[in-house]
Amino acid sequence: MSRVFRGTRLRVGTRGSALALHQATLVRAALERKFSALAVETVIIRTSGDRIRGPLTEEGGKGLFVKEIEAALLRGRIDVAVHSLKDMPAELPRGLAIAGALRRADPRDALVSRCGKPLRRLPASPRIGTGSPRRAALLKSLRPDAVILPLRGNVPTRIARLSGPAKPGALDAAVLACAGIERLGFGDRIAERFPVRSFVPAPGQGLVVMECRNRDRAVRRMLRAVTHPASWTEARAERAFLERIGGDCRLPLGGLARIRGRRITMRAFLEAADGSLARAALAGDARFPERLGRALEAGLRKAGR
After folding, report:
1. How far apart are the C-alpha atoms of 238 and 121, rounded to whole Å?
2. For the sheet containing 39-44, what is the strand order?
3. Percent of the residues in the chain that have a pLDDT greater than 70, as a whole number
4. Measured between alpha carbons, how far is 105 from 109 in angstroms, rounded to an integer?
5. pLDDT value for 90
6. What is the pLDDT of residue 53?
7. Pairing mode of beta strands 9-14, 80-84
8. pTM exceeds 0.85, yes or no
9. List 79, 87, 106, 109, catalytic entry
10. What number is the average pLDDT over the span 55-82?
11. Annotated catalytic, 87?
């Protein structure tokens, strides 16, 4: 296979945040290890999500972090797009496909607190920052007295909001993804990793995926060659769940699949209009992850009635 791609120049598109660049570097390194003669170029693309400062739920959802990158892919400006899977909407533009995934990082959510204490030991009515309806719903289920405040920005910016002496009105804590915190070297700031049974992650959390044009079969084969099989299976199950339920960042829901040998297990939750949380879990044959994702969506809808 490496002979086929000898001398090939591959352009990889990404956002310009520290985390996005780190993820693109992971993809670049994986490709260059597999194909020693491959020249990989990183192309930075600024997205609508990078420019908007208000809540994403009011501006169009998580697609704001990917649409300009996907447009560059469709125009031929880049050959591969690198994304955090959780940032991708349920539907892809026509002509594009997610072609593979790197090994998954820790999919859990983490609490970063100013005092270094876990959620249960924070003071009464703790002020906790997040821009995610999913995290807000789960936080309220664990700490009904919590005051949830909007928080956006890249990982270093959000962690900086929790450093130094507290001023009046300052945040006591924030919830971020373990994967992003650790990839950028802030693991020592994690006060608590939430168990997935009580704090179900977003579909795709911890997964770095590679998107390309459907017609580029050579590129698809290349990306498949650097794909981690178990992570890819989990990604397929979670995407099937998300596609069936029609979810995006405006819907308070979570879904996580995990491979255990030849079996795949998946759990999910959805916040109902009355604020209650419907939960469901299923297990199935790892050869058919999409089947499990679709079945879990049906089970979750049933549980929420």
Report:
1. 33
2. 39-44, 9-14, 80-84, 208-213, 96-101
3. 91
4. 12
5. 86
6. 55
7. parallel
8. yes
9. 87
10. 80
11. yes
